[in-house]
Amino acid sequence: MGALSHIRVLDLTRVLAGPWCAQTLADFGADVIKVERPEVGDDTRHWGPPYLKTPAGTDTHEAAYYLAANRNKRSLTIDIATPEGQRIVRELAAHSDVVLENYKVGQLKKYGLDYESLKAVKPDLIYCSVTGFGQTGPYAQRAGYDFIVQGIGGFMSITGERDALPGGGPQKAGVAIADLMTGMYSTVAVLTALAHRDRTGEGQYIDMALLDVQVAMLANMNSNFLASGTPPTRWGNAHPNIVPYQTFQTSDSWIIVAVGNDGQFRKFVEAGGRAELADDDRFATNPDRVRNRDVLVPLLAEMVRTRDKHDWIASLEAAGVPCGPINNLEEVFENEQVIARGLQVDLPHPSGGTVKLVRNPVKMSATPPQALTHPPTLGEHTDEILRDVLGYDDGQIAALRGQSVI
């Protein structure tokens, strides 16, 4: 029984932003009904390899991408292009607290599944639309892709190596951050709307846009520009105001060194056998080091390259110099802190094996999120939902299946 176990969410989303929101709500106990196209399902089911494997080592054709964003849900297949399918969705909306959708602007209106249509059957409904650019403005009809939004929204202008250096130029993030953050903001919006409904009885419409979120999440970079009028530039893994505060290549890998004051700088170069650098007038203080970074950083890079990652981490931690490795994901899941925090969870899967996932990172004393059920197979709960939520009998369900509605 999670904190949201009294809430039912009708999830008409696919790919990542919407499903991430729905999964977060499901982790806290909401009954999430994931509506998918018959025979095809969520696009991400096919975004592989890699796929989940059976105990015998064969592919299940459940792509790892899909598995990442769909645990704790129930899957129902409906062809919403049919009148019968549309009727079922309206019936489910009448039994739900929240509807999530990420169709193109106006697309659901022709099916009678837009906010105004569903509000007529459920006046206190919370209806959240997720699109690339929102319901208004000159870009509203454009398809929204995370990669494109990272560019339009300014993220890539401040991410990547400096243009003047080898490999310089704009760089996207390694994960779809606009999608993920939109999923998180959408979760906050839905919970806020539910709190308002519980006090007033009033539902509402939520208009979420990837571009809005991408711009908003630039945080202090936005403020830097708005205060100065000068757009921030890319600094790669370096810092514009602190030196050394960057990555360095060791003899076998990479590390991060984050020197925050002059004392830490002295300890760093002492650990590397180059104590004289701390006494050099060009490098004695942080302003000096910033002014002379082009001279200092190559000297530090040469120093760090003489020893391996583990040797450097041990030495710098012992000296009190902030540092850390740059782990690949194998190293992440072998990390003692990650293991101690229980970030990996293994759930039974209908294939007979288990699906390995990452738990919701929130820890709470009374109402923690839980990973209880595997990401559903396509249509796994169709009969169950129609029977238990809408009261359909076996004959009605068989008729719908015979008409290819479900």
UniProtKB/TrEMBL annotation:
It comes from Paraburkholderia megapolitana. It comes from the Bacteria. The keyword Transferase applies. GO terms for molecular function: CoA-transferase activity. It holds the Pfam family CoA_transf_3. InterPro entries: CoA-transferase_III_domain, CoA-Trfase_fam_III, CoA-Trfase_III_dom3_sf, CoA-Trfase_III_dom_1_sf. Keywords: Transferase. This is Formyl-CoA transferase. PANTHER family: SUCCINATE--HYDROXYMETHYLGLUTARATE COA-TRANSFERASE.
